């Protein structure tokens, strides 16, 4: 059987990680899978603007107990959400402040088992900086365009397609994470079932051999007494 560290690293390779740094990209959605060592705490940062909204979802894919602690801290230092030994959760902040939100995952209560954790940060941009691109489109669309298509209509349709694609990508990412988590549980349960089955078979064989040996010895003793 593979050791726990090998299994967790193998599962981490199955899941696509978009960023490999501890600092998350500003004003953009992010999915990240990382290995949380035993007895340690890892923190990540997400930059947001005022009046935006962010949604944080995390899941423990592998590791003993499938649980971690989680804390979401605002740029002002206020604790907005706190979980203790949970396998998954979803938290939303609306509206947000200017600055960096801190996302901390805690595994200090487990001294032996490391955890494979997946989390996703979705930033819904409502600030003026996010609308800057739309204003540029509007300014370009002010003059009458050639043919009968309006640039504004094209922009609206492209935005709709982009939103649907992003939502589909997020759903597929979550499903892929759940699949990896289920695979880990199945493999772990399969090993346990196989181990105990083999142990029971060995015990049964030992008992059978002992009984046969005891009966043969009993008949041998009886024969000697008669003679």
From TrEMBL:
Entries under InterPro entries matching the protein: Emp24-like, GOLD_dom, GOLD_dom_sf
Keyword match Signal: yes
Keyword set, alphabetical order: Endoplasmic reticulum, Membrane, Signal, Transmembrane, Transmembrane helix
Membrane disposition: Single-pass type I membrane protein
Boundaries of every GOLD domain copy: 41-123
Similarity field: Belongs to the EMP24/GP25L family.
Gene source species: Zoarces viviparus
Signal peptide: 1-23
Record's protein name: GOLD domain-containing protein
The UniProt record lists the keyword Cytoplasm: no
GO CC term (a single one): endoplasmic reticulum membrane
Compartment(s) of residence: Endoplasmic reticulum membrane; Endoplasmic reticulum-Golgi intermediate compartment membrane; Golgi apparatus, cis-Golgi network membrane; Membrane
Cited PROSITE patterns: GOLD
């Amino acid at each position: 059987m593979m050791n726990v560290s090998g299994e967790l690293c193998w599962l981490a390779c199955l899941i696509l990680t978009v960023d490999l740094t501890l600092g998350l990209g500003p004003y953009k959605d992010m999915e990240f899978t990382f290995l949380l060592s035993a007895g340690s705490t890892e923190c990540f940062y997400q930059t947001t603007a005022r009046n935006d909204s962010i949604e944080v979802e995390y899941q423990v894919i592998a590791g003993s107990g499938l649980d971690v602690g989680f804390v979401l801290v605002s740029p002002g230092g206020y604790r907005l959400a706190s979980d203790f030994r949970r396998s998954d959760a979803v938290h939303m902040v609306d509206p947000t402040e200017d600055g960096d939100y801190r996302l901390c995952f805690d595994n200090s209560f487990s001294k032996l088992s490391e955890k494979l954790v997946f989390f996703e940060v979705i930033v819904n941009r409502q600030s003026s900086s996010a609308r800057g691109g739309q204003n540029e489109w509007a300014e370009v669309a002010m003059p009458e365009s050639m043919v009968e298509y309006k640039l504004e209509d094209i922009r609206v349709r492209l935005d709709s397609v982009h939103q649907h694609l992003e939502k589909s990508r997020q759903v597929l990412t979550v499903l892929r994470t759940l699949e990896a988590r289920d695979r880990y549980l199945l493999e772990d349960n399969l090993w346990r079932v196989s181990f105990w089955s083999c142990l029971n078979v060995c015990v049964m064989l030992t008992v059978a051999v002992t009984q046969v040996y005891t009966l043969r010895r009993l008949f041998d003793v009886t024969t000697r007494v008669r003679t």
